[in-house]
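Now for a chain:

_____
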Amino acid sequence: MFTGLIQALGTLRSLGGDRFDVSCRTDASEVILQDLALGDSVAVDGICLTVEEILPHGFVATASDETLYRTTIGQRQYAAPYVNLETSMRVGSKLGGHFVTGHIDGVGCLQESVQTPNSWEMCFTAPSSLSNQWYRQIARYLVPKGSIAVNGVSLTIADCDPEGSWFKAAVIPHTYAQTNLNHLQIGGWVNLESDILGKYVDRLLGHRIGGTNQQEEITPAFLAEHGYL
């Protein structure tokens, strides 16, 4: 489990097949490597990877076929040159972002990035080649003021359209400067993880009735009956 608060930047290098060398930048390596142990989980651009070998500059990890298919890890030519790094959350530590599992739902791309006096307003949508994945795995969980992790960065959705074909997030200067969001080019790909709470709610509200395919309609009467209104 992670918080979505990035600790350092690094680089990702393929070692062939499904193995990768994750190297920390020299100016930020201590925070990641100081007590890193074999078997630890580290979020790499939001992807939960397991440390299999510790190196002086970083660590080695293996990505599953599902991870290679669903994330940017196997298609780095479309991603930012650096990766965001965060070690797993410790029991009792502060939760400054939101609960991030490191299980990526799919890939988005940067459509627009506009600097304002107080933030960078970044708009994300589906890459043209992955639109089906976007509408199956991401669009349904886009809610204004909801949480989403973009390359592992905990962000709040400022706006989105009713169909969920795009969303905007306001990135404060500190987050923009300390993460790889400032290295993204228009059209660059990012890993997206929707809020896990939204997924559970969606699952519970979509339960089947009497073993049939009919779903119970969510109406004001239904909400009142169950104590929500």
In short: The chain has six helices and 13 strands.
